Each structure stands twice: as C-alpha cells, then as structure tokens.
C-alpha cells in the first residue's frame, strides 16, 4: 500500500462520521426543522454504542443501541419543538448540553476499556483492483452505509412523492398543511431519522475510529456536520463533498503534526474549525445569500 | 380519541411569567430525584448535597457568589443578544479571550514592580479582548451572512487552543515544574478581596452593578426598546428606522465585552493565573442562565445564583458521593428543556380536545 493510498484511507475514515451525521441533519432541515443538538445526539450514540457493545460483547448490538439512543434524544427534541412549539435554536443547544452531560455519566464505567474495532469488509474481486480496490472496496461497513445513505436520501428527496411532501413542509408549512399533509408528523419522522444518523455517526467514533470511550470525544464534529449542511446548500451529494473536504483538513493537520511541520500543534489542531468558518463565509459569498428551506426554524402550530 | 392542542393566548397572564421558571426548577428537582434513584443513590441525601449544602454556611454562600459572578456577567450580555435574535453561543471563547488579553498584561509586567494602574488596565483589556473576539462572528454575519451560531461556536475551540498554546509555550511559568500555567499574578495584578481570608472579591460588586445597568438599559432606554423590537418584530423595527446590522454589532460587542470582563475577573481574581481549565464551561452554562432568567438582566441574576449552586453541589457530590461531575451537566440540560417547555405555557393555552372525524 502506498503512502498516498494510506492517506486516502484515513481521510475516508475521518470523513465518514461527518457525512453520516450531516446527511441526517440535511433531511431534518429539509423538513423545516433546525436541530442544533447534533453534537449531543452523536456523543450519546458514541457512549451508548460502546457501553452496549462491551456489555453484550457484540458490535452489532452496540450499533443498534447507538442508533436507538440517537433517536431517543431526537424524540426529546421533537417533543419540545414540535409538541410544544418552543424555540428550535434554544432547544437544540439544550440537547447538545444535555447529551454531553448524560454521555459522560453513561460512559463513566467504560473509560479506558479497550476493545477490538469493527473491521473492514473486503468485497471479493473488487478489492483486488489496483489502487481503487483497497481504497473503495476494503472499508468498514460504515463507509458503505454512508454512501448508501447519500444515494438513498438523494433518491428519496428528489425522486419520491414522500420526499416532495417533506420538502414542501420545509418550504411552506402552511401550504403543506392546507393540502392535507400532516406537517408535524412529517417533521417528527425527519427529526427521528436525523437522530438515528447522528447516533450511527457516534457509534462509528467509539466502535471504529477510536475504539474506546473518552468524555467529549466528538470534539465538535456534530457542529461541523451542521456547517457541512449549509456548505452543501442542502443537497446530499454536495454534503459528501463537504464531509470529505473537512475530513481531509483534519487528516492533513494530523499528518503535518507527525511530519514535524514547524508550527504549534495547537494551530494545526485549530485548522478544521478555522476551515469551517472560512468555508461558511466563502459559500455565503459565492451564493450571495441563504438558499435554505424557507420555513427552516419556524415553529408550526396547526389551526384546528 | 383525545389529543393535546396548543391555542395561542391573546395575552399572557402576569403571574405565569413568574410561575413558569419556578415550575421549570421544580420539574428539574423531580427529575433529579429520578436520576438519583436510577443511579442507585439515596435521593434525599443527594438533593441535600446538591442544592442545600452549598447555601448552608458562610463559606458556601461565598463560593456561590464567586461562581455566580461570571455566570451572571456573561448571561446578561447573552440576554441582550438573544432578545434581538442574535445567536451568540461562543461566550466561552470570548471569556477565554478576555482572560488572555488581561492576563497578557499581568504576565508581561510581572516582577517589574508596576504600579496600581495595572489592574484597571487589565480589566479594560479583558473587556476589549472579549468584545473584539465577539465582533468576528458579528462581522461575518452582517458582511457575508455567515451563520453566527456556527462561527461563534467554532471560535470557542480556537480560543481554547490559543490558551493551551500560550500556557504551554511563551507564557509558561519558568519555575512552574513544566506545568501548563502562567506565573501566579503579582498583587498589583490581582483583584482585591472584599474581606480578609475570604474568597469574595471585587468582581461580585462589579457584576451587580452591570446587572443593574443592563436592567435600566432594557427597561428605560431607546436602545433597550430597539433591541427588543428588532428581535420581536424585525419588520416594524425596519420601518421605525432601526439598523439591524448595527444592532448586531452592538449586542455582540456588549456580550463579548462582558464575557471578556468575566474572564479577566476570573483569571485575576479567583484563579490568579492562566491555565487550560480556567473555565468549567461558564460560557455554555450562561446560555441556560439567560433563558432561565427570561432574557431579563434581573432574572439572570436570580438564575445565575441558582446555577452557581448546582456547580458547587456537583463538586460536593463528586467529593462526598463519588458522583460523576457530568451529572451537573445533565441537570443543566434538563433545566433548559423545562424552561423552554414551560415558556410554551406563556404563549399558548394547552388543551385536550376530542379528535374530530376528518
């Protein structure tokens, strides 16, 4: 394996959790809900995922538990923002704070427990292709799942009737309601999907990426996923591009650190965050204003 | 089938605006009991350690005031931001930036026998440092339309890493056994204590003064009206000739300035040096303080005291009952959930109605 291939592999692993979380949030925002609590749902997925995996001894159970944990957190958010029509920004912040705290409590007994990460699945024949094989077809199941998610979400949003209804709820909830669609039900399902994706992304961190638990291990990835959605102009395939860009920035700084670049490690570590800010600015400048769903963040209270 | 619906209220009963945060606190306490039971602890003992012990003696009360000082200072500024729909969630970074800006003066004048001018200059530098740092997301928002929630939060990580670099690199105490910290600030760079042998320092009266001034600003001045109007009725504010962009700059500068002031007060008063763990998350907890205080400066004062109690209760519980410190975070998150949920009662009437046949 060449060095270039190795770097490409690490970029893919660093990008995958960002991509999974971003694609979930993209669907949520397309339905008109802004859930800022991705970080909280993600870290709960990481904590519950590894806790379940260690207790049951099964990685599959860990992943399942992580997805359910993300959905439970999302349901809490939905109860507040959809059921009680609260401010979505504030509720999302509460979800992030709550998740960071609760994950610390859940994960406390598992600090320092090492376990085998989920391994790669080599697709027969395809993984033997020179260069492309090891990079694309010898990955862990999450990488494949991430691409399946992007393709699936893209198809769902733009090729199905249900996807059209979901987008209608995000653009103009009053019109969708007038046409007889259940805006709150659609949004609830979207929020649950976002939670499931965030939980899955968290499971990736604690079961594959760094196969052990440390408090606060998401390190802002949930927030970066939110930025990726803006960068992607709410389009699934662009979210994949965005996630790989950010994953690349993370890996680049890690390689720069180990290569002994004469810069403070802290400056290099700040790179992904600075890149996020820069990208947000550039995207807004190039696009000349927001192109998000028109009803994004607005609470909907149906008239009887 | 019966279901729950929300009906918009024509007007909010006065008593409810007071009752809603109290209800939120009560619900948090009930949840706390459930959490303690789930963890297999005696809920009465735990409640006592968390919420009663911190206020049961003079030492504890002083600690509460010391912790409430940064929380209230930051929350008052955030309340102004949130009132005008400017979502600054990077107060933690602005706090650290203020501490670094003020701390720079303390470190660079250390051992030179500088005069009494150092401390006031540090406070000014701290407020300026925080304000300038907060103006970055304000500028990116007004100039480019970049989302201020994300940019202000990303800058928190940048500030944390900058502080980490400074105390491990250029500002590290040469006699500090390689610990990541600066020198202990000299007496002329330290906030005076209010009483001998206590912990309370001049920061607390400064905080009280700021809360009162902010309350006057909100309730009695045109600027205060502008802040509220831009948040609640942006179209009306535009017709009234208020400049929303300039207001974004103003509230970000105020919030950052107050967070920076809180930071330098913490560094020069309570901690007396710069170190990576300077803030136990004050900037984030202050968001909860602002909401629990109903975005009202006096409310922030009351809410800040309550959250300070949970901080100290959490430390006590860690020492006495070996509870993870994160339990405090869980309570704080729950509290914000309940505050937001209860606020719905102000705007809407919640009713059970019979499902109509469609």
List keywords for this structure.
heterodimer; A: 304 residues; mainly alpha; two-stranded antiparallel ribbon; B: 358 residues; two-stranded antiparallel sheet; 13 helices; 69% helix
Distance between the termini of chain A: 64 Å
Our estimate of the beta-strand percent of chain A is: under 5%
**Spatial extent as radius of gyration of chain B:** 22 Å
Please state the CA-atom Rg of chain A, rounded to the nearest Å.
Answer: 19 Å
The amount of beta strand of chain B, in percent, is: under 5%
Series of H and E elements of chain A: HHHHEHEHHHHHHHH
Question: Would you mind describing this structure in some detail?
Answer:
The complex is a heterodimer of chains A (304) and B (358). Chain A has 13 helices and two strands, in the order ααααβαβαααααααα. Chain A has 304 residues and is an all-alpha fold. The radius of gyration of chain A is 19 Å and the shape is globular. The mean pLDDT of chain A is 88. Chain B has 358 residues and is mostly helical. A two-stranded antiparallel sheet of chain B has the order 1-2. In chain B, helix 4 packs parallel to helix 6 (148-168), helix 4 (91-108) packs across helix 10 and helix 5 packs antiparallel against helix 10. The model of chain B has no long low-confidence stretch (mean pLDDT 90). Classes of the chains: A mainly alpha (304), B mainly alpha (358).
């Amino acid at each position: 394996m060449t060095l270039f291939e190795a770097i490409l592999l690490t970029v893919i692993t660093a990008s995958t959790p960002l991509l999974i979380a971003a694609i979930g949030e993209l669907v949520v925002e397309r339905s008109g809900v802004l859930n800022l609590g991705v970080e909280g749902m993600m870290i709960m997925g990481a904590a519950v995922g590894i806790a379940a995996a260690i207790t049951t001894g099964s990685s599959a159970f860990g992943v399942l538990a992580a997805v359910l944990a993300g959905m439970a957190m999302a349901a809490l958010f939905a109860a507040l923002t959809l059921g009680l029509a609260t401010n979505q920004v504030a509720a999302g912040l509460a979800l992030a704070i709550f998740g960071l705290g609760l994950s610390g409590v859940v994960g406390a007994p598992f600090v320092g427990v090492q376990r085998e990460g989920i391994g790669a699945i080599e697709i027969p024949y395809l993984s033997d292709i020179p260069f492309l094989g090891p990079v694309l077809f010898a990955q862990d199941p999450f990488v494949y799942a991430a691409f399946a998610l992007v393709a699936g979400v893209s198809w769902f949003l733009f090729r199905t009737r249900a996807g059209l209804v979901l987008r209608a709820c995000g653009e103009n909830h009053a019109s969708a309601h007038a046409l007889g669609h259940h805006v709150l039900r659609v949004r609830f399902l979207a929020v649950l999907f976002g939670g499931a994706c965030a939980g899955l992304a968290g499971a990736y961190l604690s079961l594959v990426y760094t196969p052990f638990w440390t408090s606060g291990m998401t390190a802002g990835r949930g927030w970066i996923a939110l930025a990726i959605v803006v960068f992607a102009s709410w389009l699934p395939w662009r979210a994949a591009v965005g996630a790989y860009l950010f994953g690349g920035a993370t890996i680049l700084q890690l390689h720069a650190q180990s290569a002994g670049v004469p810069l403070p490690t802290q400056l290099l570590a700040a790179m992904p965050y600075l890149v996020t800010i820069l990208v947000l600015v550039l995207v807004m400048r190039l696009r000349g204003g927001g192109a998000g769903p028109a009803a994004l963040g607005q609470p909907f209270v149906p008239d009887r | 089938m019966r279901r729950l619906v929300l009906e918009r209220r024509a007007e909010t009963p006065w008593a409810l605006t007071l009752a809603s945060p109290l209800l939120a606190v009560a619900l948090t306490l009930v949840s706390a009991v459930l959490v303690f039971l789930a963890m297999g602890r005696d809920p009465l003992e735990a409640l006592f350690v968390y919420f009663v012990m911190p206020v049961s003696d003079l030492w504890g009360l002083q600690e509460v005031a010391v912790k409430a000082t940064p929380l209230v200072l930051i929350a008052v500024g955030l309340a102004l931001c949130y009132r005008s729909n400017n979502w600054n969630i990077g107060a933690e970074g602005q706090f650290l930036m203020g501490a670094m800006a003020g701390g720079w003066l303390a470190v660079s004048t250390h051992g030179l026998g500088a005069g009494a001018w150092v401390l006031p200059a540090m406070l000014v530098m701290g407020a300026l440092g925080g304000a300038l740092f907060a103006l970055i997301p304000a500028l990116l928002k007004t100039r480019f339309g970049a989302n201020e929630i994300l940019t202000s939060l990303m800058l928190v990580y940048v500030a944390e890493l900058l502080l980490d670099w400074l105390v491990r690199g250029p500002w590290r105490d040469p006699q500090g056994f390689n610990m990541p910290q600066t020198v202990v600030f000299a007496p002329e760079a330290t906030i005076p204590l209010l009483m001998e042998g206590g912990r309370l320092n001049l920061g607390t009266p400064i905080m009280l003064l700021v809360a009162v001034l902010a309350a006057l600003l909100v309730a009695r001045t045109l600027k205060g009206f502008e802040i509220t109007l831009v948040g609640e009725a942006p179209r009306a504010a535009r017709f009234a000739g208020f400049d929303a962009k300039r207001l974004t700059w103003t509230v970000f500068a105020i919030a950052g300035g107050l967070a920076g002031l809180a930071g330098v007060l913490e560094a020069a008063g309570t901690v007396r040096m710069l170190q990576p763990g300077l803030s136990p998350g004050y900037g984030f907890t202050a968001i909860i303080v602002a909401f629990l205080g109903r975005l009202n400066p006096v409310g922030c004062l009351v809410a800040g005291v309550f959250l300070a109690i949970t901080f100290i209760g959490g430390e006590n519980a860690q020492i006495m009952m070996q509870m993870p410190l994160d339990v405090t975070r869980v309570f704080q998150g729950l509290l914000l959930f309940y505050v937001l949920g209860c606020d719905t009662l102000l705007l809407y009437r919640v009713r059970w109605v019979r499902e109509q046949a469609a």
